[in-house]
Amino acid sequence: MKQKLRFGVLGCANIAIHSVIPAIKNSETSVVLAIASRGLEKAKSMAAELDIERAYGSYEELLQDPEIDVVYIPLPNHLHKEWTIKAAKAGKHVLCEKPLALNQEEAREMVNACKEAGVSLAEGFMYRYHPRYERIKEILNSGEIGTIRGMHGTFTFNNAADKDNVRYRAEWGGGSIYDVGSYPISAARFLLEQEPEAVTVQAFFSPEHDQVDMMVSGLMEFPENIGVTFMCGMWAHFQNTLQIVGTKGRIDIPNAFIVNSDLAGDFTVTVEGETRTEPCKELNQYTIQVDEFAQSLLGGTSLRFPSEDSIRNMKVIDACLVSAKNKQRVVLT
Questions:
Q1: DSSP readout, 208-263?
Q2: Which candidate, 86, 95, 121, 163, has a CA 20 to 30 Å from the CA of 304?
Q3: Nearest to 36 by CA among 12, 53, 19, 7
Q4: What is d(CA 110, CA 85) in angstroms, rounded to the nearest whole number?
């Protein structure tokens, strides 16, 4: 493996242009060698704008480049499976945006294809790589806030006027559970280190937006009678918060999933009426994600978040979608 990993980017999605490509360029371990689009002119334009050496007019051409080590996939959700498997067969490691797939069966196929090809697969839940979450786990494990009794997460924004957005295409994996609900679902599993036993979800499916779920309220039932509630939506006031409540206190994370120069990563701990702030340095969690993924590949070590975790997360998302559509509690076996 090379001293620096060489990334190829499939597509010119906003998340790639504004977040992940700059993060890779600022990383210590990786460079962006190529970008591909379905049209050469667009790829060339983006390559020139972002100072990327190579531009390809098709995804297939990029995968044929022998000097690409890792492929980053920010494509619409319904294309994740196809291009992850094609990248794996081309011998490329894969960093794929969340949600990994449209369902757990697709996720399992992707994980197995990467294993068979001997390449690594990581899902782009960048928030998990921010060091503040390890600090939060330390506090939880210390017993400072007592026994965990519940959690509540929110991730909402209002983009409903942009009706041509890919998030509002049902067949393309649109909807708020896939797009932002996947974050509090992942965070609950990550922090509790357990899987939910049942879910109940109420959703507003919008006829103006191809009947995708535009606002969702959910309950996940975890072992030891821990209830995790969450709200996610794409037609609501912006929030991205997480609160963890214990028998002695609570942890409040006002910017739980997105942090940047305007949204600080600090969180507070309240125990028996006394509140303190746990300050966090301003860090780019996308860059941390890239560097940690690259370091595992360069060092030949296991990923901190194995790809099997993505299958388990998709299992919960599947159950949430079934519950929302059928208006019933769904037990996970």
A1: GGTTEEEEEEEEEEEGGGEEEEEEEESEEEEEEEEEEEESSEEEEETBSS--SSSS
A2: 86
A3: 12
A4: 6
Distance set, CA 167 to CA 77, 107, 125, 186 (Å): 9, 19, 18, 19
